[in-house]
């Protein structure tokens, strides 16, 4: 499967597009449409074209990985929701998630509920609830179930 235009727009809505590097809630330097990496640093400025290129460079390997991990019948909306979740938490985190475990046994309600587990970040050794993540996860769950 491949992410739909609706799925891409969903991620863009939640990530936003910032052309100047900023530190996210975890203190990770981020730019464009949620792009992170060794090439993102304080003071970096890009244009919209570079933001889209970075997004594509991040989303394409993610989709490849999801297609290896997610087996069984799922809808386009389910795949788009899983893409959004994985784009935000990372493929390795998704691959160990309850969401994937539930998908593998075709427990779609359980998988949708498991999306909501990813509403916290680790700071100073503690798990901190983040309202913005909770809202995103609710939207991902709704997309998944639609």
Characterization of the model:
- The longest helix is centred in the middle third of the chain and has 22 residues, at 48-69.
- This protein has a single domain (5-145), classed as Lysozyme, CATH 1.10.530.40.
- The protein is α+β, with helices and mostly antiparallel strands and 146 residues long.
- It is globular and about 45 Å long.
- It starts with a helix and ends with a helix.
- Helix 1 packs parallel to helix 3 (76-89), helix 3 (76-89) packs antiparallel against helix 7 and helix 6 (108-115) runs antiparallel to helix 7 (131-145).
- Helices cover 56% and strands 14% of the residues.
The name of the CATH topology is Lysozyme
Structural class: alpha+beta
Largest sheet: 3 strands, antiparallel
> What would CATH call the architecture?
Orthogonal Bundle
Amino- and carboxy-terminal Cα gap: 17 Å
Shape descriptor reads globular
**Count of discrete structural domains:** 1
């Amino acid at each position: 499967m491949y992410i739909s235009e609706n799925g891409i727009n969903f991620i863009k809505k939640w990530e936003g597009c910032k052309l100047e590097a900023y530190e996210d809630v975890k203190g990770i330097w981020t730019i464009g449409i949620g792009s992170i990496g060794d090439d993102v640093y304080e003071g970096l400025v890009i244009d919209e074209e570079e933001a889209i290129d970075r997004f594509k460079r991040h989303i394409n390997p993610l989709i490849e990985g999801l297609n290896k991990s997610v087996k069984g019948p799922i809808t386009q909306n389910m795949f788009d929701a899983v893409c959004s979740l994985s784009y935000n938490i990372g493929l390795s985190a998704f691959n160990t998630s309850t969401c994937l475990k539930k998908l593998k046994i075709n427990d779609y309600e359980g998988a949708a509920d498991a999306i909501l587990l990813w509403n916290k970040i680790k700071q100073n050794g503690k798990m901190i609830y983040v309202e913005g993540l909770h809202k995103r996860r609710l939207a991902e769950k709704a997309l998944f179930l639609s």
